[in-house]
Amino acid sequence: MTTLAYIANEFPSSLEPYVIDEIVELRRRGEKVICCSGKRVSPNTLRPAEVAFWDETHFFQPLSDHEILRALHRSSSDRHTLWQLLRPLLRERDISLSRRIRTLGHTLMGAALAEELDPHKVTHIHAHHGYFASWMAMAAAQLLKIGFSFTLHGSDLLQRGDLLTSKLLACQFCVTVSEFNRNYILRNYPSIRSDKIIVQRLGVDRVLAWPAPPLDSPSPHRRFSILSIGRLHKVKDHRFLLEACAGLRDQGVNFICWIIGEGPERPVLESLIVASRLQGRVCLLGHLPRTELVGYYRHSDLVVMTSKSEGIPVVLMEAMAHEKLVLAPSITGIPELVEHQRTGFLYQPGSLPDFISAVRWIQNHQSSLSAIQHAASASIAASYDRQRNVSAFADNFLARISHSEGDHAHPVLQQVRLSV
Question: Cβ contacts of residue 42 below 8 Å, gap of 6+?
Fold first, then answer.
């Protein structure tokens, strides 16, 4: 049995159930996994199973005075490694001063992580997402002379790839969720060996079939139901969705749009709904437990996504597993999941006319699109089955760390030197 550490910016999180899935699968195979989180998470919004993970998680923000002193001692006692960690802050371009200062703090947090993990004889650290927790994991791994790997999803690669060259050079391997991401990494980071970048898809559970709906034609007075699920964040571009809803209303479409999610954009979206006179047509439902999502999936006619950046969205997988029609932008890895007019529909990114036209076409033809709904569900069952994919992840993960065990301390530092 080996001892591993898993860290994310915020753990546990109901928005990222795949992290728990991986931990559970590794533990099922006899591995010891220590759970860590960069930020302290409130347990109030977590499900009971997630609270159990919260109880055992080590949190690193904020650090106590005692933890800061220990972290300073740990980092200053290995000045060579510390210098290797900090050199990219001086040499890499296109990094703001505030980002450099924050990374100094994250390096200190990485030293605190090393202090916490050292007594447990951890042999490998894996970070989820390429945000600051991955820098913490890299720093801790180098201070402990152990292996480091991380998973890249979407925005952490395409929009916030801070100091990513150093992380990619230092890691034993990098897991990512789409072929698009892998090709993007190899194209934009040519110094990275191709065999270090692994594609491992996420997945969802198989959905039991619902009773067949009545054969009667839908009432012409019934509102066409549009569903959007996602954090209320600028990258999800709900403002675009509200513009589209205003356009649909102006074209006489009888619809209702449910938006499920919470986040910093909520006040702006509330104001836009009022300003666009969309009250009664667009409903911000906030964060809902996963058990309540099933009802909205069931009663929606179309599940839409308007994001500017994504990996391969689990929301679309869930909708397709529920045999729902989906409409999403043709960006990043989404076309790997949604095959236009066979398992769903794609629209030109940023094109309001294309989005509105697609919604209207789907509404007018929905009674004849059952073959697409069935094909969507079959596609998810074939390629995005949760348990099968998490099992494949564990196979690959354990094979990688076993193959390189005892062979990472010096190569890691050599790789980081290459980045500077």
Answer: none
Q: Which residues contact 376 (CB under 8 A, 6 or more apart)?
A: 320, 321, 323, 324, 325, 326, 343, 344
pLDDT tens-place string over residues 37-89: 999 999 988 888 899 999 999 999 999 999 999 999 999 998 899 888 888 88
- Hey, where are the domains in the chain? 3-203+385-418, 224-383
Determine the straight-line distance between the first and last CA of the chain, rounded to whole angstroms.
36
Q: What is the CATH number of domain 3-203+385-418?
A: 3.40.50.2000
Strand order in the sheet with 147-152: 58-59, 32-39, 3-10, 124-128, 147-152, 173-176, 197-199
pTM: 0.89
**Contact call for residues 92 and 163 (beta carbons, < 8 A):** yes
| CATH superfamily placement of domain 224-383 | Glycogen Phosphorylase B; (3.40.50.2000)
